[in-house]
């Protein structure tokens, strides 16, 4: 054999060996990739998943389902649950206006980009949350329903407990990063089922494919809608800490499941895992059953919020104006009015005359709603109106240490909070409160936040008008 022929043969064998090696490497990679897909929990410490038969409550699949994870924008499922609850109780309507505070307007993307002081309807907020997952709309909605985002977060956590979500804590309405805001795949599945069971008339919003806001059309982040048979919602979520999350509701023929995937490395791998779970476990779901029957408990917040229930006996008489549906704005009818009003009984009678629901006496206090079109959330805390009270507020002894006209901007069970409210009002009002004295007054386990030192009724009323424009509740009183 010639040297040239030998070299050609040797080269051919080398190429063949390299080809076989590459084939083996590709095969090994594919096997490894399949193993990762088949067992995501083993490959990703953030992963958690569960599939629940919505007709029987049976857990069909679970992996780290009760381990705490970060919910990210799955948080907005609870925000929407409380919106649906308020709609169902006729406390708000789809046309009610949600005004954006500076805090809400400053939230990072994704967002609608609404400026402070501007507003959207409740229905627009719902659509923005289920499609674009808008953080600014979520925060504004929380402030609208809870008086402040912190107050709303407490409502969210309380509702989670009522729904049996024992390992969930909420700290904000949007799901933006907070180390203390945690949940589990199991808890999120319960919430998904509760949304479907309790509010089917509003649950349909989760299947919205796109939402037009102004000149912009926003597509739903849930890419399984319209692509995977039977998927009718619910919500996606992502932060760096949480990974890619997804809760899916699936109804196909007589079977129904809710599935959760948390901690995906990418949106695509999360979606692929969800598709795999649906394909594998939907056929195993029961065709019969009455559902998980998660209890639908009470309402989450006092449905009427006003600046303060101890109305002045003389001077400007607050006029009760309906704001939205079930909310009240305290506005003066005029500066010369002097009709006497006797505290809580009179206010309760006025509320009844206007057919406004009187809240339950169970809560010790409730955060107030926004006042008028103010851009900032009203930070005062109020006494609840109760029908059980038979003693006029005026009958309770209270030492008078300051004379002359005063203004009150709220009351709170915490004296430090009352002092902080006074400080914010003083800072915001500028010269309006120049020469006045801020002070707190203990009354019925609350601390009234007041300013004293006005020259007369007119200056006190004018100060209230200026403070209202800054977003503060306010009324004037002769002492």
TrEMBL record:
Active site (record annotation): 73 (acyl-ester intermediate), 76 (proton acceptor), 133
GO biological process: one example: cell wall organization
Note the coiled coil stretches, chain numbering. Answer: none
Q: Hey, what's the signal peptide range on this chain?
A: 1-38
Record-listed substrate binding positions: 235
Q: Does the keyword Metal-binding apply?
A: no
Which keywords describe this protein according to UniProt?
A: Carboxypeptidase, Cell shape, Cell wall biogenesis/degradation, Hydrolase, Peptidoglycan synthesis, Protease, Signal
- Superkingdom assignment: Bacteria
User: Would I find Cell wall biogenesis/degradation among this entry's keywords?
Assistant: yes
Q: Which GO terms describe its molecular function?
A: peptidoglycan binding; serine-type D-Ala-D-Ala carboxypeptidase activity
Q: Which PROSITE patterns match?
A: SPOR
UniProt cross-references to Gene3D superfamilies, sorted A to Z: DD-peptidase/beta-lactamase superfamily, Sporulation related repeat
Please give the SUPFAM superfamilies that the UniProt record associates with this protein.
beta-lactamase/transpeptidase-like, Sporulation related repeat
- What positions does the domain SPOR occupy? 399-479
Family per record: Belongs to the peptidase S11 family.
Name of this chain's protein? D-alanyl-D-alanine carboxypeptidase
């Amino acid at each position: 054999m010639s040297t040239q022929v030998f070299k050609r043969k040797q080269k051919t064998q080398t190429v063949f060996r390299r080809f076989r090696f590459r084939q083996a490497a590709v095969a090994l990679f594919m096997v490894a990739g399949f193993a990762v897909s088949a067992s995501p929990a083993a490959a990703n410490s953030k992963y958690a998943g569960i599939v629940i038969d919505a007709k029987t409550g049976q857990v069909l699949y679970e992996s780290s389902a009760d381990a705490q994870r970060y919910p990210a924008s799955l948080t907005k499922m609870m925000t929407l649950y409380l919106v649906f609850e308020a709609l169902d109780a006729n406390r708000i309507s789809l046309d009610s206006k949600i005004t954006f505070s500076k805090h809400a307007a400053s939230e990072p993307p994704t967002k609608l980009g609404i400026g402070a002081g501007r507003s959207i309807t409740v229905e627009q907020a719902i659509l923005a949350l289920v499609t674009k997952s808008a953080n600014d709309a979520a925060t504004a909605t929380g402030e609208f329903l809870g008086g402040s985002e912190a107050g709303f977060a407490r409502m969210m956590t309380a509702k989670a407990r009522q729904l049996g979500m024992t390992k969930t804590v909420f700290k904000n309405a949007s799901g933006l990063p907070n180390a203390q805001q945690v949940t589990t795949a199991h808890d999120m599945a319960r919430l998904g089922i509760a949304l479907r069971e309790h509010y089917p008339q509003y649950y349909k919003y989760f299947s919205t494919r796109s939402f037009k806001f102004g000149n912009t059309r926003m597509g739903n982040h849930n890419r399984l809608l319209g692509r995977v048979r039977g998927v009718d919602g619910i919500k996606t979520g992502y932060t760096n800490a949480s990974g890619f999350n997804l809760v899916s509701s699936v109804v196909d023929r007589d079977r129904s499941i809710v599935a959760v995937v948390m901690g995906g490395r990418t949106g695509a791998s999360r979606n692929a895992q969800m598709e795999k779970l649906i394909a594998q476990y939907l056929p195993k779901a029961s065709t019969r059953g009455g559902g998980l029957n998660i209890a639908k408990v009470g309402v989450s917040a006092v449905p009427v919020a006003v600046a303060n229930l101890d109305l002045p006996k003389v001077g400007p008489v607050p006029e009760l104006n309906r704001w939205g549906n079930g909310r009240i704005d305290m506005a003066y009818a005029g500066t010369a009015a002097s009709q006497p009003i006797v505290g809580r009984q009179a206010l309760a009678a006025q509320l009844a005359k206007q057919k406004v629901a009187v809240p339950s006496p169970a809560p010790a206090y409730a955060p107030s709603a926004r006042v008028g079109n103010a851009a900032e959330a009203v930070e005062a805390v109020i006494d609840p109106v109760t029908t059980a009270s038979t003693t006029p507020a005026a009958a309770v002894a209270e030492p008078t240490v300051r004379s002359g006209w005063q203004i009150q901007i709220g009351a709170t069970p915490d004296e430090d909070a009352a002092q902080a409210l006074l400080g914010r009002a003083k800072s915001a009002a500028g010269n309006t409160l120049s020469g006045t004295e801020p002070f707190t007054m203990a009354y019925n386990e609350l601390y009234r936040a007041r300013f004293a030192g006005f020259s007369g009724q007119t200056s006190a009323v004018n100060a209230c008008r200026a403070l209202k424009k800054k977003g503060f509740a306010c009324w004037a009183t002769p002492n």
